[in-house]
Amino acid sequence: MIFTKVPPIYLVIVSTVGAIFMGTLALIVRSRAAKKPVTPLKIILPPLFMSTGALMFFFKEFRVPPLQIVEALLVGMLFSILLIRTTKLEVKNEAIYVQRSKAFLFILLGLLIVRLIGKLVLSSTIDVGELGGMFWILAFGMIVPWRIGMLVKFHKLQKEKSVHLSQ
Q1: C-alpha to C-alpha distance for 2 and 20, rounded to whole angstroms
Q2: Are 120 and 11 in contact (CB under 8 A)?
Q3: For 72, what's the count of Cα atoms within 13 Å in the CB-facing half-sphere?
Q4: Which residue from 44, 92, 103, 138 could staple onto 72, CB 3.0 to 4.6 Å apart?
Q5: Virtual CA dihedral for 125, 127, 130, 134, nearest 10 degrees?
Q6: Chain segment 13-62, per-residue pLDDT in tens
């Protein structure tokens, strides 16, 4: 397999550059999305698209031991609390929008920095492929509860909006 032939330091560098690129892309997409109304489909699709990343676990280089799966999921769920609490929805012009938040920028940058430092520190003791699997599990464990929280907030706000309009 290619992962065993490439020196681990190159894999760490490439995955770090990839993480920075994806983090920047997430900031751009998120800032553009704030200009358009949110819908249940727009809330649900990102975790569904991300779930295709689980296909990496078909390759043994990315497989993660059960205890590390639990650890990564728990850390992701803890991080999701920040995102759930700072994601606010508002009604504008009869539609529901995500409020712009400077906190999101700092949270995303903070998570990116924690991920990069964690990768650099852990890559000396944990195989790079396994580490990639752990970070995917962590990210998935963060995005799913966050999006569920957004969906709950959306439906609550939609219900309040419809009650307000019927009065």
Answers
A1: 23
A2: no
A3: 22
A4: 138
A5: 30
A6: 787 788 788 778 877 877 777 788 999 999 999 999 999 999 999 999 89
* CB-CB contact of 132 with 19 (8 Å): no
d(CA 30, CA 39): 14
CA gap 24, 92 in Å, rounded: 27
Q: Strand (E) positions, 4-127?
A: 89-92, 95-98
Give the separation between CA 72 and CA 119, rounded to whole angstroms.
Answer: 13
Q: Model's pTM, two decimal places? A: 0.81
Rounded distance between C-alpha atoms, residue 95 and residue 72, angstroms: 36
Closest CA to 134 of 1, 27, 15, 5: 15
Alpha helices, DSSP H, located in 87-127: 102-122
| Amino acid identity for residue 146 in this structure | W
